[in-house]
Automatic annotation (TrEMBL):
Lineage, highest ranks first: Bacteria, Bacillati, Bacillota, Bacilli, Bacillales
Keywords in alphabetical order: Antiport, Cell membrane, Ion transport, Membrane, Transmembrane, Transmembrane helix, Transport
Record-given protein name: Multiple resistance and pH homeostasis protein F
Molecular-function GO terms, alphabetical: sodium:proton antiporter activity
InterPro entries to which the protein is assigned, alphabetical: MrpF/PhaF-like
Stretches that traverse the bilayer: 6-22, 34-55, 61-82
Predominant localisation class: membrane
Transferase is among the record's keywords: no
Family named by the database record: Belongs to the CPA3 antiporters (TC 2.A.63) subunit F family.
GO cellular component annotations of the record: plasma membrane
Membrane topology: Multi-pass membrane protein
Cellular location(s): Cell membrane
Keyword Amino-acid biosynthesis: no
Amino acid sequence: MISLVLKIALVFFSLTIAISFYRVARGPSMPDRIVGLDTISVNLLSMVAIISILFETTAYLEAILIIGILSFIGTIAFSKFLERGVLIERKSNK
């Protein structure tokens, strides 16, 4: 019974990722696209966790951590770029 519920959850997460891809591609503004990318990463994390439960293994837990860290860094980098226009600020000695 639990495997059926987990498989149904995988289908729903796949649908939400497809909807989020639409938001990334056709978002009205750049912040909407960033939120779409963040939503995709959270859903991907959830899908990997469900797959890990279905296969009864802990081998995918490192992948979950890596996806989470990269998602966080990406969101911060995009937000900083939107706010300032550059990712790395270089101070000139004038």
